[in-house]
Design goal:
This protein is an alpha+beta fold and 432 residues long. It has 7 helices and 26 strands.
């Protein structure tokens, strides 16, 4: 009896599947390959139809924030690109394709120096970190395409990319406006003011603003893109009952959150020694003086003995975690990446006036800091900046307090101990 019952169930299942298949065949009167081909053609037609091209808000890793990239797609599967990666008047044409690969993929499949600038693992200007660059994509999953907007997601890294039609074909004019606004709003630190009472102090790195929440002790990062009219945040920021989406530029340095006049961003200019201790300043061998180089030579021996390369080294404040929201509070000292291993050697400091600082090794490290101190001759870094028993006081000079590109430390007790540290990322410091 049980066998008979199972046979009837099997027959019912087969009939049900047959019925479902008939319903599916009735719904789709074309094969899947035909439907995909039509979708690809429709997307292609919309991309090409925009005679002025598309403005792409391009994000690699949000660590670096957003950049303006303009793409003019053509019927012959070429795309003309202009972007912030080049001068405002620059453009470069290369090949693109749209194809099926577990969904529709838009691929910039021929090297374009203005587009692949963000995905190049060895960025030509040293942006990002060497070996990964800015973590940008050049292949994108097509999420939605309309004449008004195109939504893409990076195939490898997954960042959301939005394209909207350009209002005109004056790419140089648009990018020049962006360049001017970026120059006028580019500071190392800002104050974000609420109702003229509550203030948050923000630090800038690339196109990213960050602060440590006083209550949660969490580092909050706000990636943004610069437009001709100001900063636009990648995602809205909710704080103290306010929703913050952008900061509109004006000649008076009070950049309001759109029409909300109760919230504004304004530059904050610290004395040179405060900017030094609150920034991340990169070291290169060529920028070190005679005194420092003799110790750096020993450090290089230690790294070579491990079969590694020193990828970067800096002094100042560095968030070792590097995530968008971290419970780790950044520390002051020597930070480094050797062969992919991160570490810090921590320093105590005393600010002297506005342009001097006294440094002393705290005899502590984070992550791999103490291991390299004990095993890779990194203890030879300590005499350069000051030991726990023999602190060093440095005179600090810079090029521009509003937005310094470098800091020069001159040891007041040893004029041969001069170190120039720069704001821009320096890869492989022993080779630069």
């Amino acid at each position: 009896m049980r066998k008979t019952y199972n046979i009837w169930l099997l027959l019912i299942a087969v009939l049900t599947l047959a019925s479902c298949k008939q319903e599916i065949d009735d719904v789709f009167d074309k094969s899947s390959s035909e439907r995909i081909s039509e979708a690809i053609k429709e997307d292609m037609d919309i991309l090409v139809a925009q005679q002025n091209g598309w403005l792409m808000n391009f994000y690699g890793s949000t660590t670096y924030g957003g950049y303006n990239v303009i793409c003019k797609f053509n019927n012959d599967n070429t795309v003309t690109v202009a972007s912030e990666a080049g001068a405002p008047g620059d453009s470069h044409t290369s090949h693109f394709k749209i194809e099926q690969s577990q969904g529709i993929i838009l691929s910039f499949d021929e090297h374009n120096p203005l587009f692949h600038y963000f995905s190049d693992p060895h960025n030509p200007d040293g942006m990002g970190t060497d070996g990964t660059g800015m973590n940008g994509d050049f292949e994108f999953r097509v999420n939605n395409v309309t004449p008004d907007s195109v939504i893409l997601y990076g195939k490898k890294h997954g960042e959301r990319i939005v394209m909207t039609p350009m209002k005109d074909s004056n790419y140089e004019g648009y990018l020049t406006q962006v360049e001017t606004t970026e120059k006028n709003m580019n500071f190392n630190e800002y104050m974000l003011v609420f109702d003229k009472q509550d203030t948050i102090y923000l630090k800038r790195s690339y196109r990213n603003l960050s602060f440590v929440d006083a209550e949660t002790k969490v580092t909050v990062k706000l990636p943004f893109i610069t437009t001709p009219t100001g900063f636009v945040l990648n995602t809205p920021f909710e704080y103290k009952g306010k929703t913050i989406t952008r900061f509109d530029y004006s000649d008076e340095p009070l950049w309001y959150n759109g029409t909300d006049k109760t919230v504004y961003l304004t530059p904050y200019v610290r004395p040179a020694n405060e900017q030094f201790i609150n920034g991340q300043w990169f070291l290169s061998y060529s920028n070190a003086g005679e005194f420092a180089q003799q110790y750096l030579n020993v450090v290089k021996q230690g790294v070579d003995n491990l079969g590694e390369k020193l990828i970067w080294m800096s002094f100042g404040t560095y968030d070792l975690d590097g995530s968008s929201k971290s419970t780790y509070l950044p520390e002051v000292g020597i930070s480094f990446n050797s062969g992919g291993y991160l570490g810090q050697l921590l320093y105590n400091y005393k600010l002297v006036g506005e342009d001097k600082i006294t440094l002393s090794f705290a005899r502590q490290g984070i992550s791999n800091g103490i291991w390299y101190y004990n095993n890779a001759k990194f203890d030879n870094l300590i005499p350069i900046f000051g030991s726990s028993s023999a602190p060093r006081t440095f005179q600090i000079t810079t090029d521009n307090l509003l937005s310094p590109s470098y800091m020069v430390l001159t040891d007041v007790s040893n004029p041969k101990n001069v170190i120039k540290l720069v704001a821009r990322y320096v890869s492989y410091p022993f080779e630069n």
